[in-house]
Amino acid sequence: MTLIRTTLSAAVVACGLAAGMLSSGAPAGAQPAPPPAPVQGEVPPAWAPPKPAETWAGHPVVWYSGWGGRWGVWINGSFISLTSNPVTGGG
């Protein structure tokens, strides 16, 4: 009797898993990579220092007006400054 219950329970679980996989319709592969994020930059003002480079570490160099304005790159949602503050001449 115990063997029949164990076999029957295993069969019910196997059928339930198979039915769940077939009815979900989800692909079995990995999801594609998300599209690249848009370039987060602003139009530099006339008094901005010259752009130091077009790219840095594979990322486009852009103007950001925060902290008085400076050139830098956006990487993983964080801004990495490549120039000092042109207004105060400091960091």
Largest sheet: 3 strands, antiparallel
Q: Give the C-alpha Rg.
A: 28 Å
User: pLDDT under 50 segments (min length 5)?
Assistant: none
DSSP strand content: 15-25%
**How does the overall form come out from the CA principal axes?**
elongated
* Mean pLDDT across all amino acids: 75
Order of strands in the sheet with most strands:
3-4-5
Terminal residue distance: 80 Å
- Helix and strand element order: HEEEEE
Number of helices: 1
Number of strands: 5
Helix content: 25-40%
Query: What structural category characterises the helix and strand content?
Result: alpha+beta
Signal peptide: 1-28
Region (Disordered): 25-51
Keywords: Signal
List keywords for this structure.
91 residues; 5 strands; 25% helix; signal
